[in-house]
Every structure is written in structure tokens, then in C-alpha cells.
Design goal:
By secondary structure, the protein is an alpha/beta fold. The chain folds into seven domains: 173 residues, FAD/NAD(P)-binding domain (3-Layer(bba) Sandwich); 118 residues, FAD/NAD(P)-binding domain (3-Layer(bba) Sandwich), CATH 3.50.50; 82 residues, FAD/NAD-linked reductase, C-terminal dimerisation domain (Enolase-like, domain 1), CATH 3.30.390; 58 residues, Arc Repressor Mutant, subunit A, CATH 1.10.10; 67 residues, no CATH class; 99 residues, Alpha-Beta Plaits; 148 residues, 2-Layer Sandwich (Sulfite Reductase Hemoprotein, domain 1). It has 24 helices and 40 strands. Keywords: 2Fe-2S, 4Fe-4S, FAD, Flavoprotein, Heme, Iron, Iron-sulfur, Metal-binding, Nitrate assimilation, Oxidoreductase, Thioether bond.
Length: 831
């Protein structure tokens, strides 16, 4: 890392979105020649987009997704920036100009930028923390990757986890949406009288509540939580309220607001009020070489919790420090919010409603469609607007709010396309300085310039500018602007149909090539098919799944291509232990099996034994090194509760005991589970069989559900869902016998295995492909593919191996060895 002799030491405390963006802006202004840049970040990663955490929680993105990671580790070294990751700054000596870290490292500086961001605010309530101050097991904030991973691990541990989210603002609703998508029972508790009260008025909050409840999320407003309830083992059991009522829960997520992280600054003697007080150059009060930026900074009495003001601050500070514009001044931000809340588009700016008798107030709401719009005009100027559901006018309203376009006399035209002013006629008329992507600070001018500089596809533009890679609410406008800028010459993006980003092939093409070249290992696929033969971490799991689907037990098992759950055949938990779910075919068990489970639970001190929603028994809290012994003592097959595979077949008692039973659902459920056990699938697959249309086993909302309808006939439903997506399955066919159910079930499952996208559940796959098309292919065999499907599913069934048999022949010496901590991090005190 070369620097000129006159370069000074620039230290940035904080590697979050504010700190990293400021460094980017400094580098863009020649800062690498001017400064020797060092950054300290307390998380063991590069810079990532916190806005994307809700997408990770909902399963729409992965932790290593390129849309999440803004600056990977290689970016720092490539730009001459020294990063101390996984360490925390604990003290600042302003006179010695040095910062000391938890690891004992001392870093000197000439210029210091404090970008410590903000922390989750945890209200003072009983049961929230352990005696040593740590959050209780099962209690989470929603602020970083660790919070998100903890929630995911607990959510995926079993099928019947319930959660309470404390706080009905933006972050709380995103957490609720993500957890609901994972299949949890979710309730949101909010102290104020309506949701998102900071952005919406009461009527808007009411419309939003109806939309949230459509997702299956319970909403409880005007309820103040007083305690987190826990059992004798310290596990969360629910929450209690000020009126004495309670709500059951296994998990509590606290999203009751954020607070600027000012501990380092306050201890060092910097002027701190709500945040670190700064002037118009972002310089800390009474300081010559210390600056603050982002959510930790307080400017003219205001702190900001949105990213758009942070981007503006970063530009000003970079101008000042590099000398590009020494007189640059930050004068505050007029905040506008445009985002997607739990799948609902929302845009808000300024005041929520009229404040004086002379204010003009235009309001429209339609609860049935989830649409709400309002605006407030004072003295001919727009001082507030709210849009929900339909935000097509957000661009024009933002310009009007900033005073850049005149208001039409017919105010309603500001909300609807009736006599709209020319300024809102189309994207061509929008000014270049319109901020299109608030999450990443991308303007219309940035998008147009990217197209004019040679970007050929929408994907190229989004990759280069990061537009649309936050909440996603701007994607439509981004696409319109890019198409307009390209003048009709925008190229179609072929990568949209690729199975994985690094291999330019659709799934059918990839499958055919893998078979033709006899590729049986993920490393072989990368070497022969990936662009420049480079490995892509995000592609390993989908490729491993695909190879197992194609070759069954004859694929080459490379441990590094598998997620930890698939490597050890158990579900990892938040604390690094695992859960084990033995198979109980059709949910039927015996006293002998129950005795074995009880004996294992006693022998290994299993902290929690839980009946799942899939009619199985889950043993939680088992150490990695104990897994082979637990499986050996159980002497029961794996229940596959951990992988992307066929999971369970839920049944009712059918004709055996039920007086309403029309078919032997139990026997058919066992037969289905024996037939398809452990099959690798693009996403988890859940089945159920109901002995009559009363549907006690919930067969109508499973990936594959079967219902007895009398006279020996069975209805087969596909594509059902009972998670965040509540969807009744589509009736694929009515068949005349259990054998016909198994036969058609095999065809559907194999077709899904071969044609679904990675992580695409059947409730998305079936509507995408189309029910009529599936019936033509699988029931009527109009394209002559049934014989091939039958043969390939039989080959897969014949290749079944119980993975728990690996207890006697581990795949590697480390397979069941203790492996925590997973990352070589500095040994620092527990916080």
C-alpha cells in the first residue's frame, strides 16, 4: 500500500454503511494519495447492506448474496484500506490521537471519523436479559447479520415456532414478514394505536394493518409489553402486557426503535446530546480533527435513521476532507421514505396530516385493495404526502415536496392520472437529481450516465450503481428510466434464466450438460462450466442439490459444497448445538420408539423435547460431537427435518378410528413417506393425507396433499402453503386408488425436482408453470414425458440411503468434531 510522504492517517471507527460510504466518496476524490486509511469494524465481515437483512430473513437472499455484501474483504485491500474486522473500538484518547480496541490493538490517527451507527433500543422489561446482561435465549434485536442468523436458525429448527415482534414500525413489520415467510406463527405488538405511526396517520395505519393481517400475522396495537416470560430452563414462553394479559411465543424480536451509539464519543469527552453533535462540515463540536457521520451524528438538533441523509453527509464530509470543496456544507435533509414494508409499497414525506385550519388536505383510501393516499398543501407548497399500495406518483410528489415543480390547481391530479401536470408525464421529464433509489443513494442522472457509458442490460446498470438492491421498491422506476435512457436499445438480460449466476445456462441446459459430460462434483462443474472457471460460493449449495438430484448416491460428495445442516444431517441452532428429528412414518409411533427417545433425552441431557407441527418429536440442544452416538442409541432413520428435501407426511387417523373417515389416510401417508423419504428437492417439500374433506391433517395447504372423497377416490392437491404465503393447493387430479396417488405423486415430485428454481417452493412453482400445463404433462401425458419421469423417480427411490448411517463411517475426520468458534475472531469480552 503506497502513500506519498505527506499522506496523513485517516481512521474510520465503524465499518457500516455510513463509514464505508464515506471512505468510498473519499477514494473517489483521490483520497488514496492523500490519506493512509484504516477502518475498525466490530463485525467479522466487509461492509454489507443492512436494508437487505429483511430479504435474508424472508429467504429471498443469502448471507453471502452479492446484493447484501456491498464491499467484500477484497475491496479493502484493492483500494489500499486497512480493515480491522471483528474488533471493537473501546476508548478514544483525543489528546494522544489514538483509539484502543477490545483486542488491545492501538491505532493512531491524524483525522478521525466516528461512524458507530446506532443500536437496537431494548426497553427495560423483566425477563429480557440474563443475570450477566446478555439477551435471554430466544430474544433478538434485528440490526445485524448475527441477529438475522440467530432468528433463521431458530425458525428452521422445527415446524411450529411462534414469535412475538415488539414494535410495529418499519423494522418490526419487516421482521414479522420475514419470520412469517419462514412458516412461523407471528404476532406484532405495538404500543401506539396504529402501525408505522411515525410515517402514517391513523387511517393509513388501519389500511396497512389489514394488509399485514392478510399475511397471517396477528396485530395487537395499544398494547405495552411489560415482561418476557421464560420457563425454569430459561427458554422464552411468551410475553405479558400492562393489562395482565399474555401471548405465547418461543421467540421475541425487539424492534422498538434505535438509539445512536455514542458510548465511545461520550467517554472521550466529545459533546453528545441525542447523538454526537456536529457542525455543517460534520466536524465534532470544539474539535479540529474529529468528525462524525451517519446515525450516530446529531446535526442542527436532528438525528437521522434513514440512509438517504447518510449518503448526503458522506458526500459533504468527503468534499471537506479531500479539499475537493472545503466550503461544502451539510444543511440537513428533507426526509422522504420510499420502501417496501412486508411486501407493501409505501412512500412518505413531510407531515402526515393538516396542522392548521388553512392546510389543504386531500385523502383517498380503499381498504379492499390496500390503497391509501394523502397530501397536505400549505400556502401553495406541498408539505406532506403519503402513498401506500399504489406509489406511482412518488417521483412527482418528491419533486413537488422539494419545490422543484409547480403544483397543479386540481390537487387530486397529484395522486391520480387525471389531468396530471406535464412534469409528471413520464420518466423523461424527471430531473436528473431525482433520487430514485433511497437505499443506495442513486439518482436518475446516475442511471442515465451508466447507460450512456456502455451498460447494456438492466442487470448491468443495477450491478454498477446498486440501484434496486435495497428494499426493491424502486425497481419499476429504475427499469423505466434505464429503458428510456437506452432509447429502445436495451438488451434482454440472459442471466435472468440461469440456474446459478456464474454458469450461463438454464436449469434444463445445465442438467443436460452435466449428464453429457458426466460431471459428478461441484468442483468439476465450476472448472468446466463456470465463467472463467471461477468458483462462486452462492452457487455451491444449489449445484450440490442438483448433482444429488441427477446422480443420487453416485454424486461426488465434497463437504465444502454443503451447508452445515447437510454435512452433519441435523439442524444447527443459535448456540451451535443441533436438533435431531427421527423419522415417524405418517406421524405414527410405538411405545418402543417413545422409550428410545426418552432414554436418549435423559442420557444426553437434551434441554428441550418438542412435538413438531409435522407430527414428529424434536430433540433440541445436542452437541455436534454427540450426534453419531445419539443416532446410534435411537436406532431410528433420519426424519430429514434439516435439508431441502421431502420432509414429512402428515396424516389423520382416517378409517382406522374416525367415524367420518372415507379412506385409510394413515396407511397411504406411511406408503408415501416410505416411497419418497429423503428425496433431494429444490426446496423443502411437505406432504399430508386427509381421510375426508374435513382436512384435519391440513392436506389442502401442503406442497402435495391428498384427500379421500369416498368410493375409493382421492383428490390430489399441489402447490399449497400455510406459511407467510397462505395458499390453497390446486386440484391436480382425482384418482381411483392409493397406488394411483403414489404414481402421480412421483411424477409431480420428479417434475418439480427437475424444473423448479433453487429454493422455489411449490406454491410459487405451480402458479409459474400453470395448473393446466401440469395436468397436460403429468395426467394426460400430452408430451410423452411420463415414462421418463417414472423411471427417474424410481432410480432416485432405489438410491435412498439413511444419512445417519454415516455415524459408523464419517465422510471426513472433522465431520462430527467440535467446530466452534466457526471464525478465528479476537477473544473479546461478551457484550
Amino acid at each position: 500500500m503506497a502513500h506519498t510522504p505527506s499522506s496523513s492517517k485517516l481512521l474510520v471507527v465503524g465499518n457500516g454503511m455510513a463509514g464505508a460510504r464515506t471512505v468510498e466518496e473519499i477514494l473517489n476524490r483521490g483520497g488514496r494519495e492523500r490519506f493512509e486509511i484504516t477502518m475498525i469494524g466490530d463485525e467479522p465481515y466487509g461492509n454489507y447492506n443492512r436494508i437487505m437483512l429483511s430479504h435474508v430473513l424472508s429467504g429471498e437472499a443469502a448471507v453471502d448474496d452479492e446484493d447484501l455484501i456491498l464491499n467484500p474483504m477484497g475491496w479493502y485491500s484493492a483500494n489500499g484500506v486497512k480493515l480491522h474486522a471483528g474488533d471493537r473500538a473501546v476508548s478514544l484518547d483525543r489528546f494522544a490521537k489514538s483509539v484502543t480496541c477490545e483486542s488491545g490493538r492501538v491505532v493512531d490517527y491524524d483525522v478521525l471519523i466516528v461512524a458507530t451507527g446506532s443500536n437496537t433500543f431494548f426497553p427495560n422489561m423483566d425477563g429480557l436479559r440474563e443475570h450477566d446482561g446478555r439477551l435471554a435465549r430466544g430474544v433478538f434485536g434485528f440490526r445485524n447479520i448475527a441477529d438475522t442468523n440467530g432468528m433463521l436458525q431458530m425458525a428452521q429448527a422445527r415446524d411450529d415456532v411462534s414469535a412475538v415482534v415488539i414494535g410495529g414500525g418499519l423494522l418490526g413489520l419487516e421482521a414479522a414478514y420475514g419470520l412469517r415467510t419462514q412458516g412461523l406463527t407471528v404476532n406484532v405488538v405495538h404500543s401506539p394505536g396504529h402501525l408505522m405511526n411515525q410515517q402514517l396517520d391513523e387511517r393509513g395505519g388501519s389500511v396497512l394493518r389489514a394488509e399485514i393481517e392478510k399475511l397471517g400475522v396477528g396485530v395487537h396495537t395499544s398494547m405495552r409489553t411489560t415482561a418476557v416470560l421464560r420457563d425454569d430452563a430459561g427458554l422464552v414462553t411468551g410475553v405479558s402486557f400492562v393489562d395482565g394479559s399474555t401471548l405465547d411465543a418461543d421467540m421475541v424480536v425487539v424492534t422498538a426503535g434505535i438509539r445512536p451509539n455514542t458510548e465511545l464519543a461520550r467517554a472521550a469527552g466529545l459533546v453528545v446530546e441525542r447523538g454526537i453533535v456536529v457542525d455543517d462540515q460534520m466536524r465534532c463540536e470544539d474539535e479540529g480533527s474529529v468528525y462524525a457521520v451517519g446515525e450516530c451524528a446529531q446535526h442542527r438538533g436532528e438525528t437521522y435513521g434513514l440512509v438517504a441523509p447518510v449518503w448526503e453527509q458522506a458526500v459533504i464530509l468527503a468534499d471537506v476532507l479531500t479539499g475537493s470543496d472545503p466550503e461544502a456544507a451539510y444543511v440537513g435533509s428533507r426526509t422522504t421514505t420510499q420502501l417496501k414494508v412486508a411486501g407493501v409499497d409505501v412512500a412518505a414525506m413531510g407531515v402526515k396530516g393538516p396542522e392548521t385550519a388553512d392546510d389543504e388536505f386531500v385523502q383517498y383510501y380503499e381498504p379492499r385493495s390496500g390503497t391509501y393516499k394523502s397530501l397536505v398543501v400549505r400556502d401553495g407548497k406541498l408539505i406532506g404526502a403519503t402513498l401506500m399500495g399504489d406509489i406511482s406518483k412518488a417521483g412527482f410528489l418528491t419533486q413537488a415536496f422539494d419545490g422543484k415543480v409547480p403544483l397543479p390547481e386540481e390537487r387530486i391530479s397529484m395522486l391520480f392520472d387525471v389531468g396530471a401536470p406535464g412534469a409528471a408525464a413520464g420518466v423523461a421529464d424527471l430531473p436528473d437529481d431525482l433520487q430514485v433509489c433511497n437505499c443506495n443513494g442513486v439518482s436518475k442522472g446516475d442511471l442515465v450516465a451508466c447507460v450512456h457509458s456502455g451498460a447494456k442490460t438492466l442487470t448491468d446498470v443495477c450491478a454498477q450503481t446498486r440501484a434496486g438492491k435495497g428494499c426493491g421498491s424502486c425497481k419499476g422506476l429504475v427499469a423505466d428510466i434505464v429503458a428510456c435512457a437506452a432509447g429502445g436499445e436495451l438488451e434482454a438480460d440472459p442471466s435472468a434464466d440461469w440456474y446459478v449466476p456464474c454458469i450461463p445456462m438454464s436449469k434444463p441446459e445445465l442438467v443436460a450438460t452435466i449428464r453429457e459430460r458426466d460431471l459428478r462434483a461441484v468442483s468439476q462443474v465450476f472448472a468446466e462450466l463456470a465463467t472463467d472457471a471461477k468458483e462462486d460460493a452462492s452457487a455451491k449449495m444449489p449445484l450440490a442439490s442438483l448433482l444429488r438430484t441427477i446422480w443420487g448416491p453416485d454424486w461426488v460428495d465434497e463437504r465444502g459444497a454443503l451447508f452445515i445442516n447437510d454435512r452433519v444431517h441435523a439442524n444447527i441452532q443459535r448456540d451451535g448445538t443441533f436438533s435431531v428429528v427421527p423419522q415417524m412414518k405418517g406421524g405414527v409411533t410405538t411405545p418402543d420408539q417413545l422409550r428410545k427417545i426418552a432414554d436418549v433425552a435423559d442420557k444426553y441431557g437434551v434441554p428441550l423435547v418438542k412435538v413438531t407441527g409435522g407430527q414428529r418429536i424434536d430433540l433440541l440442544g445436542i452437541k455436534k460431537e454427540d450426534l453419531p452416538k445419539v443416532w446410534g442409541d435411537l436406532d431410528m432413520p433420519s426424519g430429514f427435518a434439516y435439508g431441502k428435501s421431502m420432509r414429512t407426511v402428515k396424516t389423520c387417523v382416517g378409517t382406522d378410528f374416525c367415524r367420518y373417515g372415507l379412506g385409510d389416510s394413515t396407511s397411504l401417508g406411511i406408503a408415501l413417506e416410505e416411497r419418497f423419504q429423503g428425496l433431494e428437492t429444490p426446496a423443502k417439500l411437505k406432504l399430508a393425507v386427509a381421510g375426508c374433506p374435513r382436512n384435519c391433517s391440513e392436506a389442502l395447504c401442503k406442497d402435495f396433499g391428498v384427500v379421500a372423497v369416498g368410493d375409493g377416490r382421492w383428490d390430489i392437491y399441489v402447490g399449497g402453503a400455510a406459511g407467510a404465503h397462505i395458499r390453497k393447493g390446486d386440484l391436480l387430479a382425482t384418482v381411483e386408488s392409493p397406488d394411483a396417488v403414489i404414481e402421480l405423486g412421483g411424477r409431480f415430485i420428479q417434475y418439480y425436482r427437475e424444473n423448479a428454481k433453487w429454493l422455489e417452493r411449490t406454491y410459487d412453482f405451480v402458479p409459474r408453470v400453470g395448473l393446466e400445463h401440469l395436468q397436460a404433462l403429468l395426467v394426460r401425458d400430452e408430451e410423452d414425458i411420463v415414462t421418463g419421469l417414472d423411471e427417474r423417480i424410481q432410480t432416485a427411490v432405489d438410491g435412498y440411503r439413511d444419512p445417519w448411517k454415516e455415524r459408523s463411517a464419517p465422510k471426513s475426520p472433522a465431520q462430527f468434531a467440535p467446530s466452534l468458534p466457526l471464525l478465528p475472531l479476537p477473544q473479546v469480552p461478551v457484550r
